Amino acid sequence: MPIPRLQLSPDRVRHLDRYLDATKSALLFASRAILVEGISELLLLPALAERVLATDEAADASAKREAFEAVERFFGTTRVIVDGVGFEVYLRVLLAPVDGICLGWRVALITDTDVPPGEPEPPRLQSLRKLPRGWRSPGELHLAAAPRTLEPALWSENNVTALQAAFLRCAPHSQERWDQVVEATDPALAFGELFVPKTSRTVTDADGEILKGTEISKGRFAQELADVLADRAVPFTVPDYLAGAIRFVTAQDTSTPAVGAP
Q1: pLDDT tens sequence across 17-29
Q2: Angle at 7 between CA 143 and CA 101, to 5 degrees
């Protein structure tokens, strides 16, 4: 792949030069890649993938083999943290073709909408979806967007046990704060606001006061939740948008790709 023919602007080249260290340069050899906004998604994805791709104990040998191979494909997938929403340059490197060939074969982009559920998605997401089509890329892009952000998207009735356990590992003496989240009118929003500064919170208690408490580190919480999820007896439902991205990037292709080996 002649990188100079990707038509990267000088500022995009400088961006990549700052980003590509000895580990992250794997991006340039990625036929399968997952692009994420921040550290939380990066830390959680392996634990979530093992849940999504697992098969039942009663499954036959063929199903178990397929599940094993899917997990292997996941751990062979390059995972890239973008530290923000500047995805375009990475998509260009992976999916913009030269002479009909591109580096990426399957690329999953995981991002936040940063708007409440039911509201129109931001224009930036529509623009990202159009890029591979505009380039006539032979590779595929799957864009997975969380309603609001990752943390509220993790909230569901089935996930309360796991989320509570991870939260209390981060804040051992904060059961009262957790009770306020569960009792809130919108528990998903209240849960998400555990991870933002007090000045950015909107959820109030029964007296109309903004919920208090020290901001929880998103990275620390992701680490603790991944540890909790290692126990398969703990119930947890992976959000649809994340499960879809995991299944997309680990799918077994039956045709010979134009972009390199699987």
Answers
A1: 776 765 567 777 8
A2: 65
